[in-house]
Amino acid sequence: MSEVRVGDWLVAGVLTALGVVLMAFDIAESGGSPWLIPVFAAATVPVLWWRRGVLAVTGVALAAVTLHDLLFGWVTRCGAGLPLAFTLAFLGALAYGRTKAWLSLGLSVLLCVAVLIRDTAAGPGTLVLAVPIALIVFGVGRAARQRAFLNRQLRSRDAELRELRDERAALVVADDRAELSHRLDGLLRDRLDQLTRAAESADGLEPAQAKVLLESIEAGGRRTMDDMREIVGLLRGDEADLEPAPTVAHLDALLARQRSPHPRLTVTGDARSLPATVELSAYRIVEYLVAVLDARTDARVEVAVRFADEGLEIRVNGTVGRGADVRAAVVRARERARLLGGSVDVKIARGRARVVAQLPVLG
Hints:
This protein is α+β, with helices and mostly antiparallel strands. The protein is built from ten helices and five strands, in the order ααααααααβαββαββ.
């Protein structure tokens, strides 16, 4: 979020242009020093980098305007200085949480004081209007931040719902294909038994009778082939080319894609194929959790999977990443486990997270 964007150039350019015009007016009216312009520009140009830290930018602007007061005394600054203060109040409210946002507002109010304390056009009395306007702009910034947060949550939830919908569709398709495969197997067994019995009954028949029997066997074979083609076509799924759902066997590849240099996967117990819903849920739970763990070179992510008779146990240990939304990841993991009648227990101490998930296997 620290790069300079087109909008940043626009805001900083407008504020700087206001300052240049105003200072040029002061120079023309009162014969002031040409240094009025660059010193005031030192307060507006840093707005370009507000994404790296509004507090720092506001502090620089306050220092530059204070220096402007000391060097040049009574000149007109309000036309550019107040828009600068209001802009920084809005950006601070937009960029920070509650504590830092209020601190940024305090610096913006001090900037209003520095602008007006020796201003020939407005003067210190204008503070009774400037401070309420700064508060209003600050409130607008807080509302914009809250709205942006809600929009991010909605987009995340929408993406999660789409993912769950796609996975459910994949599971339905997998179940349908398993049923069709079972039907194909049963069909082949029944038809082959019928053809075998018909062929065995041909011994001792008259040529005419044998010919009729062979024709019936041929027709039955053709009918069997037609049925097989229909079912195999459905199994191939020509209408929807879906990739297989990830399973426990794919966890090694999942950890290999993480930025952590030394992820460790341990598998114990009687490793075996589990129901598709259990396999997919186990993979997703690990995926949710490792995404919020720290990926620094001195951090280590450990995943342990134990196959038990009654189900699957998953343990995930690691350092919580800075700014990671652990709560959201745990909520998603618990939703997954709850669908199968399982559970997810979480302990976080001294920056490390220890998660134990239990997924029962019925039948």
